[in-house]
Amino acid sequence: MLKTVQIACFASLISLLNPDLNGISQDYTPSSVLSAGKWFKIALTEDNIYRIDYSRLKQIGLEYPSNPMVFGNNTGQLPYFNDAPHPDDLREIAIYTFTGVDGVFNEGDYLLFYGKGTNRWIFDNETGEFSHSRHNYSDTAFYFLTSGPAQAKRIGPADESMLPPNYFSASSDALHIHEVESDNILHSGREWYQPVSSSKDIEVNPGFRELVPSEKIRYTIKVLARASASTTFRISENGSILTTVPVDGLTWHPQQVRMPRLCRSQAKQSPPHLNPSIKYLS
Ligand SMILES: [Ca+2]
Protein backbone atom coordinates (compact mmCIF):
# COMPACT_ATOMS: atom_id res chain seq x y z
CA MET A 1 0.00 0.00 0.00
CA LEU A 2 1.54 3.25 -1.07
CA LYS A 3 0.65 6.80 -0.09
CA THR A 4 2.48 9.59 -1.79
CA VAL A 5 2.27 13.33 -1.98
CA GLN A 6 3.66 16.46 -3.55
CA ILE A 7 2.72 19.98 -2.52
CA ALA A 8 3.11 23.50 -3.81
CA CYS A 9 2.36 26.55 -1.72
CA PHE A 10 2.81 30.22 -2.32
CA ALA A 11 1.79 33.67 -1.19
CA SER A 12 0.53 35.68 -4.13
CA LEU A 13 0.83 39.44 -3.84
CA ILE A 14 2.00 40.83 -7.16
CA SER A 15 2.08 38.89 -10.39
CA LEU A 16 5.38 38.36 -12.12
CA LEU A 17 5.70 36.64 -15.44
CA ASN A 18 8.57 35.86 -17.71
CA PRO A 19 7.20 34.53 -20.98
CA ASP A 20 10.15 32.93 -22.70
CA LEU A 21 8.77 31.38 -25.85
CA ASN A 22 8.86 34.53 -27.97
CA GLY A 23 10.86 34.55 -31.15
CA ILE A 24 10.82 30.81 -31.70
CA SER A 25 10.82 29.98 -35.39
CA GLN A 26 10.10 26.87 -37.38
CA ASP A 27 12.60 27.92 -40.08
CA TYR A 28 15.91 26.13 -39.87
CA THR A 29 19.13 28.07 -40.01
CA PRO A 30 21.61 26.99 -42.72
CA SER A 31 24.46 26.64 -40.24
CA SER A 32 24.79 26.74 -36.50
CA VAL A 33 26.53 29.53 -34.65
CA LEU A 34 28.43 26.75 -32.92
CA SER A 35 30.24 25.94 -36.18
CA ALA A 36 32.76 28.74 -35.68
CA GLY A 37 34.67 30.26 -32.80
CA LYS A 38 35.61 29.09 -29.34
CA TRP A 39 32.71 28.17 -27.05
CA PHE A 40 32.27 27.54 -23.36
CA LYS A 41 29.32 25.83 -21.73
CA ILE A 42 27.73 27.27 -18.57
CA ALA A 43 25.54 25.01 -16.41
CA LEU A 44 22.78 26.61 -14.30
CA THR A 45 20.24 25.13 -11.95
CA GLU A 46 18.19 28.18 -10.93
CA ASP A 47 16.80 31.46 -12.22
CA ASN A 48 19.17 34.24 -11.35
CA ILE A 49 21.32 37.10 -12.56
CA TYR A 50 24.79 35.72 -13.20
CA ARG A 51 28.08 37.61 -13.22
CA ILE A 52 31.30 36.81 -15.09
CA ASP A 53 34.36 38.97 -14.50
CA TYR A 54 36.50 40.19 -17.38
CA SER A 55 39.53 38.61 -15.67
CA ARG A 56 37.78 35.24 -15.78
CA LEU A 57 37.02 35.64 -19.48
CA LYS A 58 40.72 36.25 -20.12
CA GLN A 59 41.72 33.39 -17.87
CA ILE A 60 39.64 30.81 -19.74
CA GLY A 61 41.05 32.02 -23.07
CA LEU A 62 38.13 33.79 -24.71
CA GLU A 63 39.30 34.96 -28.13
CA TYR A 64 37.88 38.48 -27.78
CA PRO A 65 37.46 39.02 -24.03
CA SER A 66 36.33 42.62 -24.58
CA ASN A 67 33.41 41.38 -26.70
CA PRO A 68 31.84 38.46 -24.85
CA MET A 69 28.60 36.98 -26.14
CA VAL A 70 26.14 34.72 -24.36
CA PHE A 71 23.77 32.36 -26.14
CA GLY A 72 20.96 30.22 -24.81
CA ASN A 73 17.62 28.78 -25.88
CA ASN A 74 16.47 27.73 -22.51
CA THR A 75 12.71 27.51 -22.96
CA GLY A 76 12.19 24.92 -20.26
CA GLN A 77 10.68 21.54 -21.03
CA LEU A 78 10.65 20.90 -24.79
CA PRO A 79 7.26 19.98 -26.26
CA TYR A 80 6.37 16.31 -26.60
CA PHE A 81 4.86 16.88 -30.06
CA ASN A 82 7.33 17.14 -32.92
CA ASP A 83 5.25 19.76 -34.74
CA ALA A 84 5.03 22.12 -31.78
CA PRO A 85 7.07 25.35 -31.93
CA HIS A 86 10.60 24.79 -30.74
CA PRO A 87 13.94 26.62 -31.06
CA ASP A 88 16.36 25.77 -33.84
CA ASP A 89 19.85 27.25 -33.53
CA LEU A 90 21.16 28.93 -30.42
CA ARG A 91 19.99 32.51 -29.94
CA GLU A 92 22.11 35.28 -28.54
CA ILE A 93 20.81 36.88 -25.39
CA ALA A 94 21.49 40.46 -24.37
CA ILE A 95 24.03 41.02 -21.63
CA TYR A 96 24.84 43.96 -19.39
CA THR A 97 28.46 45.03 -19.22
CA PHE A 98 29.89 47.14 -16.44
CA THR A 99 32.71 49.09 -18.06
CA GLY A 100 33.82 51.47 -15.33
CA VAL A 101 34.85 55.07 -15.89
CA ASP A 102 36.76 54.41 -19.13
CA GLY A 103 33.70 53.02 -20.91
CA VAL A 104 35.73 50.08 -22.20
CA PHE A 105 35.09 46.49 -21.16
CA ASN A 106 38.47 45.57 -19.68
CA GLU A 107 40.25 44.63 -16.46
CA GLY A 108 38.11 45.17 -13.35
CA ASP A 109 34.84 45.01 -15.32
CA TYR A 110 32.20 42.32 -15.48
CA LEU A 111 29.18 41.15 -17.44
CA LEU A 112 25.75 40.20 -16.15
CA PHE A 113 23.14 38.03 -17.80
CA TYR A 114 19.82 36.60 -16.73
CA GLY A 115 19.82 32.84 -16.78
CA LYS A 116 16.90 30.52 -16.15
CA GLY A 117 16.88 27.02 -14.75
CA THR A 118 14.88 24.21 -16.32
CA ASN A 119 11.72 24.50 -14.21
CA ARG A 120 9.06 27.14 -14.64
CA TRP A 121 6.45 28.96 -12.65
CA ILE A 122 3.63 29.67 -15.11
CA PHE A 123 1.15 32.43 -14.44
CA ASP A 124 -2.42 32.10 -15.69
CA ASN A 125 -3.75 35.57 -16.52
CA GLU A 126 -7.36 34.40 -16.40
CA THR A 127 -7.29 32.70 -13.01
CA GLY A 128 -4.52 34.79 -11.49
CA GLU A 129 -2.87 31.58 -10.30
CA PHE A 130 0.63 30.20 -10.70
CA SER A 131 1.39 26.62 -11.57
CA HIS A 132 4.77 24.90 -11.50
CA SER A 133 6.19 23.05 -14.47
CA ARG A 134 9.02 20.69 -13.66
CA HIS A 135 11.41 19.65 -16.42
CA ASN A 136 11.07 15.90 -16.68
CA TYR A 137 14.53 15.15 -17.99
CA SER A 138 17.04 17.68 -16.68
CA ASP A 139 17.63 19.75 -13.57
CA THR A 140 20.37 21.73 -15.30
CA ALA A 141 20.10 24.36 -18.02
CA PHE A 142 22.99 25.30 -20.27
CA TYR A 143 24.13 28.64 -21.66
CA PHE A 144 26.96 29.15 -24.10
CA LEU A 145 29.71 31.74 -23.93
CA THR A 146 31.74 32.91 -26.90
CA SER A 147 33.15 36.17 -28.29
CA GLY A 148 33.53 38.01 -31.55
CA PRO A 149 35.22 41.00 -33.14
CA ALA A 150 31.99 43.00 -32.92
CA GLN A 151 30.16 44.04 -29.78
CA ALA A 152 27.52 41.62 -28.52
CA LYS A 153 23.88 42.33 -27.78
CA ARG A 154 23.65 44.66 -24.83
CA ILE A 155 20.89 45.31 -22.35
CA GLY A 156 19.98 48.93 -22.89
CA PRO A 157 18.26 51.40 -20.61
CA ALA A 158 14.49 51.12 -20.53
CA ASP A 159 12.38 53.90 -21.97
CA GLU A 160 11.08 55.85 -19.05
CA SER A 161 7.52 57.06 -19.13
CA MET A 162 7.02 60.80 -18.97
CA LEU A 163 3.85 60.27 -16.94
CA PRO A 164 3.99 60.41 -13.16
CA PRO A 165 3.72 57.01 -11.41
CA ASN A 166 0.23 56.14 -10.24
CA TYR A 167 0.95 52.86 -8.48
CA PHE A 168 3.52 52.00 -5.83
CA SER A 169 4.28 48.58 -4.44
CA ALA A 170 6.65 47.32 -1.80
CA SER A 171 5.73 43.65 -2.10
CA SER A 172 6.15 40.82 -4.54
CA ASP A 173 5.09 37.21 -4.98
CA ALA A 174 6.74 34.46 -3.00
CA LEU A 175 6.57 31.00 -4.56
CA HIS A 176 7.67 27.64 -3.24
CA ILE A 177 7.47 24.09 -4.53
CA HIS A 178 8.03 21.04 -2.38
CA GLU A 179 8.59 18.06 -4.60
CA VAL A 180 10.71 15.06 -3.68
CA GLU A 181 10.71 12.61 -6.55
CA SER A 182 11.67 9.34 -4.91
CA ASP A 183 8.93 6.85 -5.83
CA ASN A 184 7.41 5.80 -9.12
CA ILE A 185 4.59 3.44 -8.30
CA LEU A 186 4.20 1.84 -11.72
CA HIS A 187 7.91 2.03 -12.53
CA SER A 188 6.88 3.78 -15.71
CA GLY A 189 6.09 7.26 -16.98
CA ARG A 190 7.16 10.64 -15.70
CA GLU A 191 5.29 10.95 -12.40
CA TRP A 192 7.37 10.53 -9.28
CA TYR A 193 6.17 11.15 -5.73
CA GLN A 194 7.31 11.28 -2.15
CA PRO A 195 6.02 8.55 0.20
CA VAL A 196 3.94 9.69 3.17
CA SER A 197 3.76 7.93 6.50
CA SER A 198 0.84 8.03 8.90
CA SER A 199 3.27 8.09 11.80
CA LYS A 200 5.53 10.88 10.59
CA ASP A 201 4.47 14.13 8.96
CA ILE A 202 6.14 15.69 5.97
CA GLU A 203 7.15 19.15 7.09
CA VAL A 204 7.22 21.88 4.46
CA ASN A 205 8.81 25.18 5.42
CA PRO A 206 9.34 27.58 2.51
CA GLY A 207 11.23 30.00 4.74
CA PHE A 208 9.11 32.99 3.75
CA ARG A 209 9.48 36.08 5.88
CA GLU A 210 7.71 39.41 6.19
CA LEU A 211 4.50 38.10 4.70
CA VAL A 212 1.66 40.55 4.12
CA PRO A 213 -0.92 39.56 6.80
CA SER A 214 -3.90 40.49 4.64
CA GLU A 215 -2.82 38.17 1.83
CA LYS A 216 -3.76 34.52 2.02
CA ILE A 217 -1.32 31.75 1.26
CA ARG A 218 -2.58 29.54 -1.52
CA TYR A 219 -1.74 25.88 -1.43
CA THR A 220 -2.07 23.37 -4.23
CA ILE A 221 -1.46 19.76 -3.34
CA LYS A 222 -1.36 16.71 -5.57
CA VAL A 223 -1.61 13.32 -3.95
CA LEU A 224 -1.68 9.78 -5.21
CA ALA A 225 -2.77 6.56 -3.55
CA ARG A 226 -3.11 2.92 -4.51
CA ALA A 227 -4.96 1.05 -1.84
CA SER A 228 -8.01 -1.20 -1.51
CA ALA A 229 -9.49 1.14 1.09
CA SER A 230 -10.08 4.86 0.61
CA THR A 231 -7.28 7.12 1.75
CA THR A 232 -7.45 10.59 3.25
CA PHE A 233 -4.53 12.96 3.15
CA ARG A 234 -4.54 15.70 5.73
CA ILE A 235 -2.71 19.00 5.43
CA SER A 236 -2.32 21.02 8.58
CA GLU A 237 -0.59 24.15 9.71
CA ASN A 238 0.41 24.73 13.30
CA GLY A 239 -2.04 22.05 14.45
CA SER A 240 -5.01 23.33 12.43
CA ILE A 241 -6.22 21.30 9.48
CA LEU A 242 -6.05 23.30 6.27
CA THR A 243 -7.70 20.74 4.05
CA THR A 244 -8.26 17.05 3.64
CA VAL A 245 -7.90 15.27 0.32
CA PRO A 246 -9.77 11.99 -0.07
CA VAL A 247 -8.70 9.40 -2.64
CA ASP A 248 -11.04 6.55 -3.44
CA GLY A 249 -9.98 2.96 -2.85
CA LEU A 250 -9.37 0.51 -5.68
CA THR A 251 -11.09 -2.74 -6.52
CA TRP A 252 -8.31 -5.28 -6.71
CA HIS A 253 -8.14 -7.53 -9.75
CA PRO A 254 -5.08 -9.77 -9.75
CA GLN A 255 -4.75 -9.74 -13.52
CA GLN A 256 -4.97 -5.97 -13.94
CA VAL A 257 -2.41 -3.26 -13.64
CA ARG A 258 -3.10 -1.53 -10.38
CA MET A 259 -3.20 2.07 -11.48
CA PRO A 260 -2.92 4.55 -8.63
CA ARG A 261 -5.53 7.21 -8.24
CA LEU A 262 -4.64 10.88 -8.35
CA CYS A 263 -6.32 13.81 -6.70
CA ARG A 264 -5.63 17.55 -6.54
CA SER A 265 -6.85 19.96 -3.93
CA GLN A 266 -6.43 23.64 -3.12
CA ALA A 267 -6.64 25.59 0.10
CA LYS A 268 -6.16 29.16 1.26
CA GLN A 269 -5.01 30.31 4.63
CA SER A 270 -4.02 33.60 6.21
CA PRO A 271 -0.40 33.38 7.24
CA PRO A 272 -0.09 33.26 11.05
CA HIS A 273 2.58 30.61 10.55
CA LEU A 274 4.15 29.03 7.56
CA ASN A 275 5.04 25.50 8.36
CA PRO A 276 2.49 23.18 6.80
CA SER A 277 2.74 19.47 7.42
CA ILE A 278 1.15 16.59 5.54
CA LYS A 279 0.12 13.20 6.72
CA TYR A 280 -2.47 10.67 5.65
CA LEU A 281 -5.19 8.85 7.48
CA SER A 282 -5.78 5.34 6.23
CA1 LIG B 1 36.61 49.49 -18.02
Q: What would the CATH topology of the largest domain be?
A: Jelly Rolls
- Based on secondary structure, the structural category is mainly beta
CATH class of the largest domain reads: Mainly Beta
Give the number of helices.
1
Describe this structure in words.
By secondary structure, this protein is mainly β. The chain has two domains: 2-12 and 172-281, Sandwich (Jelly Rolls), CATH 2.60.120; 35-78 and 89-147, no CATH class. The protein contains one helix and 18 strands. The chain has one helix spanning 54-60, and strands spanning 2-11, 40-44, 48-53, 68-71, 92-93, 96-98, 110-115, 120-124, 129-133, 141-147, 174-178, 194-195, 202-203, 217-226, 231-237, 240-247, 261-269, 276-281. Strands 1, 11, 12, 14 and 17 form a five-stranded antiparallel sheet that branches. A four-stranded antiparallel sheet has the order 2-10-4-5, with no helix packed on it. A hairpin with a 2-residue loop joins strand 15 and strand 16 (240-247). It is globular, with a radius of gyration of 24 Å. The termini are close together. Bound molecules: calcium ion (CA). Calcium ion is lined by residues 99-100, 102, 104, 106, 109.
